[in-house]
Design brief:
single chain; alpha+beta; four-stranded antiparallel beta sheet; 8 helices; 10 strands; about 25% strand
């Protein structure tokens, strides 16, 4: 049940998210719109929409913004028709990278993603070139000091697949994407509030980066994340603080 320490990286990601709040809102509006278009506008029967709405609440997005995005997705309001597209590639030393996008212009998006890869030392790959190195799953992080036995009991009872501890005392709960909403709700009812909770592409193994190579890898990841059409960037690189 033990694993690589991720706590510093989790806190770093939260800080980075807080620092670019406006961009986060834009991405969430896109995600809410697509989720509503694909699964309907009821958060209680649309798990993807519920997750996006929860993220919007955590990001302090006004409810009116969420409702407008849902209305655009369901066709009540006119809006842009976004398309989901995924790109895969390699970073420094062949580190695996997945880039998930929502776009209204696939030609523009692939051009921008390819340019970011090539400018910062990476390479675009073909479909499936690195995704086999990741697992699509629900991922919930709990702070150091959480009661391990109680968390494990509640998580497994809720349908989680695994509870992984790190060397700093934090915990990661893994579950199937379809079980994410029920696992999260059950754990919160049991008194366990996650620091972060998302459906992700989780790397099966990780590669640590330090020094100059860490800086190069971070620049590549930042360049990809800063593209307007990019929703999420996943990598098996661990960049130490």
């Amino acid at each position: 049940m033990s694993g690589h320490s991720k706590w510093a990286n989790i806190k770093h990601k939260k800080a980075a998210t807080d620092a670019k709040r406006g961009k986060i809102w834009t991405r969430l509006i896109k995600e809410i719109t697509v989720a509503a278009r694909m699964g309907g506008g009821d958060v209680n029967s649309n798990p993807r929409l519920r997750l996006a709405a929860d993220k919007a609440a955590a990001a302090n997005m006004p409810k009116e913004n969420v409702q407008r995005a849902i209305a655009r997705g369901t066709g009540t309001l006119d809006g842009v028709n976004y398309e989901e597209v995924r790109y895969e590639g390699y970073g420094i030393n062949g580190a695996a990278i997945i880039v998930d996008c929502l776009t209204d212009n696939r030609v523009r998006t692939v051009s921008e993603v390819r340019h970011a890869f090539s400018k910062f030392g990476g390479n675009m790959g073909t479909e499936g070139s690195v995704s086999f190195q990741f697992k699509h799953c629900g991922q919930l992080f709990f702070a150091p000091g959480t009661d391990e036995d109680a968390l494990m009991e509640a998580a497994l009872e809720a349908g989680a697949e695994d509870v992984i501890s790190d060397e700093e005392g934090g915990f990661e709960v893994i579950c199937a994407p379809a079980d994410f909403a029920q696992v999260k709700e059950a754990l919160e009812k049991a008194g366990f509030k996650p620091e972060m909770a998302e459906i992700v592409m989780r790397p099966n193994s990780e590669t640590e980066f330090t020094g100059a190579e860490a800086e190069k890898m971070q620049k590549l990841l930042d360049a990809l994340e800063n593209l307007d059409d990019v929703q999420e960037v996943y990598t098996n690189a661990v960049i130490e603080e």
